[in-house]
Fold this sequence. Notes:
- The complex is a heterodimer.
- By secondary structure, chain A is mainly α.
- Chain A has one domain (3-208).
- Helix content of chain A is 71%, strand content 0%.
- Chain A contains 8 helices and no strands.
- In chain A, helix 1 (3-16) crosses helix 4, helix 3 runs parallel beside helix 6 and helix 6 (122-146) runs parallel beside helix 8 (187-208).
- The two termini of chain A are 19 Å apart.
- The model of chain A has no long low-confidence stretch (mean pLDDT 88).
- By secondary structure, chain B is of the alpha/beta class.
- Chain B has 2 domains: 16-281, no CATH class; 290-520.
- Helices cover 60% and strands 7% of the residues of chain B.
- Chain B is built from 23 helices and 9 strands.
- Chain B has a 4-stranded mixed β-sheet, covered by helices on one side.
- In chain B, helix 4 (66-93) runs antiparallel to helix 10.
- The radius of gyration of chain B is 31 Å and the shape is elongated.
- Classes of the chains: A mainly alpha, B alpha/beta.
- At the A-B interface, helix 2, helix 3 and helix 7 of A face helix 3, helix 4 and helix 10 of B.
Amino acid sequence: MSTRTLYPLLWPTARAIKWRPLAAGAALGMAVLLIPQALTERLTVTHLTTLARIAAICLALGAAFLLDDPATRSTPAVPTPRLARNLVRVALAGPTIALWWALTLSLAKTTGHHAAAAHLPVAALTLEAAALLAGALALAAIAQRRTVDGNGNASVVAAPAVLVFVAVAWLLPHPVELILNPTDPRWTASHHHWAGVLATALVAFLWAGHERT
Amino acid sequence: MTALLAHAPGTPAIDATAPRRAVLALARVETLRMLRHPVTVAATLLLAGSWVATWFAIGTSRYPVLQELDRDSAIGMMILLGGAALIVGNLAVLRAHRDGTTGLSQVLILPDRARTLAHLFAPLPLAVLGAVLIVARMAALAIWAPAAGHPNPYELATGPATVLLLGALGVLLGRLTRSAVVAPLALLVLLASLVALDPLAHGGKALWLAPQGGSALPMPVPVSLIGRPAAAHLGYLLGLAGLLAAAALLRAGARGVRVAVAGVLALACAVAGGTAQMSAPGHAAVAARTAVMYHPSQYETCRELGHVTYCAFAGFSRWIPAWDTVVRAVVAQAPATARSAPLTVRQRIAFVGLSGGKGPEQLLAAWRADDAAAGTPGAIGIDTRWGDSRSAASLAARVAYRLVTGQPGEAREERAGQRELVGATACGGVGVLVVWLAAQAGTQARTGLRQLAEDGPDRRGGVSFDENELFPSVYVPAPELAVATQALDRPRADTAARVQRSWATLTAPGTTAAQAARILGVPAPATSTAC
Lengths: 213, 531
């Protein structure tokens, strides 16, 4: 694989990606965080953190559709490995997603007239969002790998799987809990767990990118 | 020829019940698929698992208040089972499109609208499963735990009703759009509404229009004071579910009288329920809350165990043995002379915003008068939460203060005219003794004491023992707390003997923390409190 083979892939892949679910997730995520903030000043930093998490889940749901490819049945035979094709898709969507997240959080911080908005734990929430996103992509890649003769809709499995993944994360008990209030003394420790989730998800994404033999 | 046609097997014109049977058969298949779907299985396991985990993780769940848990269980069910019904129902409707068989299904005997009807029936068994789960939880808690009160059946039924509502929403979304991302996003909107609607509506009645209903009271209260329009809300939810189902059928091409009648009935149900739920809580509920808040003794039943009288609100009397264990352990450490006075532990609740702007002083005065009228002056107050370490430590410390000083700890305004309340300060030997005695009430009280001392809300450095979230009762300053903590690290029997021997000196008002430290054989504190 060289960049010379990847470069011609960019434009057709960009056209083949299902952008609509991602756009819907991104738009809803932004609305979920910014609309309540614009309407009331009674939101605490806990409320804002939870809403930012829901915004990140919206985006992760959209990202679960990123690897959908109606031509899945024909692609095991092409010389470009699936991992490379998946990485091209992620590379195309990644910058847009990062920009969206930065814009959403900065809007949330600047438009909020109350003190809670200023205390939003941006770095920690970005780590959580990255882990959720990587988890969604890993689930999509695993779903894609499992459907040998499917119709390329990895998202049918991946999108509900993202929600189940989130539900499990939400309900994890002490001492492995992931969802905490920013005021909780175990906040930092829980973000070490989030970093672990991110690393596991990335490894799973890379592993699942290999074609089954 | 006509006879031949009449005997042709399976023609719809002949067998009038065939479509109905086909719808039921399809509904049966879809139901099984929904129940066996990995998302449904995961959601059911997570729901049951979270209920079991709560039992082990949260102390107060060992002493559950059933009239509060019914709403909690219904909301958990809405998110997990309702979410599963929404997503799985939506995926089932979109199956034909996903598999590219939409054209093929047009030639089937069942038209689109009949298939939609079958999809709408599919969440019914899941709702029944939800009802079984929620009833099983309540029964298990009522039988095996010292549960207070009883659940509201209507409140319990809102859980399964939300499963139906979200199931119908999933089918409708599948009929409106072929994108599989819409249903999961709809679930996230619901989640966001759980977070944001409460501050947005500011506890207003508009909150009842959301599936989760109005916000709960800040603390558990007796059943008679809840005043939640649960029955009207259930009607509203079922009406909404019917409306969504009718909309899905309309969208699928159903144009019959029956759909119209069902839609109108559902609309009437939703409107009637919706308006009825907005009118609560009425003046009667507010009056009842005020009466119970100001005159608790008139609404309680009392029970005497040893020298101690325990007065609990209706439904809460199953907690008395647990309170008694703590109180008895503290009393046992005091010498016989200090134990002779009769003690009363009385349950009380304080509603914020019901005092009519009169301030906390009036409520405290009303409680004093109420105690005097009931013949139990100086009663020790206790709130409607129990089972966690802090509650145990707080009760133990306030009983200890009552034993040591002969007075119940009572809140007062920190500075005259200010709303900030502080508890009675336990200085010198009294403070040391209060903390040491509180720690004798068992490991739970000791844990609670450590938690209160470590991250208690008190900014002055010591530890505050509160009757409830509004009223602090007893405050022990930092030097006294330090002496008591050191005394607790020493051999228990030796310290207990010293306490028995020097009870009179330790409880004398003039004894300082340094003197108390000398008596108990621990180093004197670096600072002292000005009392």
